[in-house]
UniProtKB/TrEMBL annotation:
Protein name: Pilus assembly protein PilN
Keyword list, A-Z: Coiled coil, Membrane, Transmembrane, Transmembrane helix
Membrane spanning stretches: 21-43
One Pfam family hit: PilN
Length: 187
């Protein structure tokens, strides 16, 4: 038995083992390629889905921007209308201001003060008159400050008339009227 040669059997076994190895290697390669391809398809589908969601959000944001612009124009129109309403209300309040001013002046002027001239410019009254004493004038200023119609009584000048028989002093005073349209422009 020493003459039996086992060499071709080993070569056949080695070729079979190599064939099995390459078959297994090809199967693993195909499986790996399939896994990579399926992972690629999965992530590409996720990317496409996210892209479509982003596009949807961009479209919705564009519509909301249009609505915001419309809201801004509506707010501007509302502010303009509110200004007009305020002007109309102020004009309504100041409609009878002449009558109210004369009525209030009759109430606040004490005995001993005589009004010579009354001039209205905007929301300011310029009073020019004569006073028997400075106490009467101080009482009138206090009455103006307590008045519901007048505010900010500012005496401009008080001068004594030496030539007059009753020793009257002349005065000039500015008084502001509350709630007139010009009052808003000054603020």
């Amino acid at each position: 038995m020493a003459h039996i040669n086992l060499l071709p059997w080993r070569e056949a076994a080695l070729k079979a083992q190599q064939k099995e190895y390459f078959t297994l290697l090809a199967a693993i390669g195909i499986i790996a390629f399939a896994l990579v391809l399926s992972a690629n398809f999965y992530y590409q589908a996720r990317i496409d889905g996210q892209t479509s969601k982003n596009q949807y959000l961009k479209n919705e944001i564009a519509q909301l921007d249009i609505q915001i612009a419309e809201i801004k124009t509506l707010n501007d129109k509302k502010a303009e209308l509110q200004k007009r309403i305020n002007v109309v209300e102020q004009l309504q309040r100041s409609r009878n201001v002449g009558t109210q001013v004369l009525d209030e002046i009759a109430k606040i002027i004490p005995n001993g003060i005589y009004i010579i001239e009354l001039e209205k410019q905007g929301n300011t009254l310029q009073l020019t008159g004569k006073s028997e004493s400075n106490n009467h004038l101080a009482n009138m200023i206090r009455a103006v400050e307590l008045s519901d119609l007048f505010v900010d009584a500012t005496p401009e000048s008080i001068t004594a008339d030496d030539g007059s028989p009753k020793l009257l002093s002349s005065f000039k005073m500015k008084v502001k009227i509350k709630g007139l349209v010009d009052d808003e422009g000054g603020k």
